[in-house]
Amino acid sequence: MKTKTHKVLIIEDEGDLCLLLNILLEGTGTEVEHVQSIAKAEEYLLHTIPSLIILDNRLPDGFGIDFLGFVKEEHPSIKVIMISGVDAAAQDVALENGADAFLRKPFTKAQLHQAVTELLNKEASVTSAF
């Protein structure tokens, strides 16, 4: 039985967190790539469309919340998990701007797995919505 591999793009400028996310996503049927800025993410999206983006809010060249609108407008099929540890109000704004899930740093492996699994399974069976 062959399972579909989902592409996941991590947009995060902290190398340690990128490594940790890679480790946490092992065994979830995902192929993980990462970039460290909004500019690199825009370049990536020109030739590759991932199933899921894990998007940090504070990046060297802007805010993930602002980039979220671009992603949802240009690629509405991409699911987005917004992550942030700084601003509690970011959660409401992220969800209003189209984020499919929000994880506040620090989050657990279980929280990450649950969000990833739910969003990638939604893609396969849209009928199981809330």
TrEMBL record:
Q: Which UniProt keywords apply?
A: Phosphoprotein
PANTHER family, per database record = RESPONSE REGULATORY DOMAIN-CONTAINING PROTEIN, STRESS RESPONSE REGULATOR PROTEIN 1
Which residues are modified to 4-aspartylphosphate? Answer: D56
**Keyword Phosphoprotein among record annotations:** yes
Coiled-coil annotation reads: none
Q: Which domain of life is it from?
A: Bacteria
Establish whether keyword Phosphoprotein is in the entry: yes
Native source organism of the sequence: Chitinophaga agri
The record's annotation in SUPFAM superfamilies points to: CheY-like (SSF52172)
Q: What protein name applies here? A: Response regulator
Biological process GO annotation list? Answer: phosphorelay signal transduction system
Stretches assigned to the Response regulatory domain = 7-120
Per its UniProt record, what Pfam families does this chain match?
Response_reg
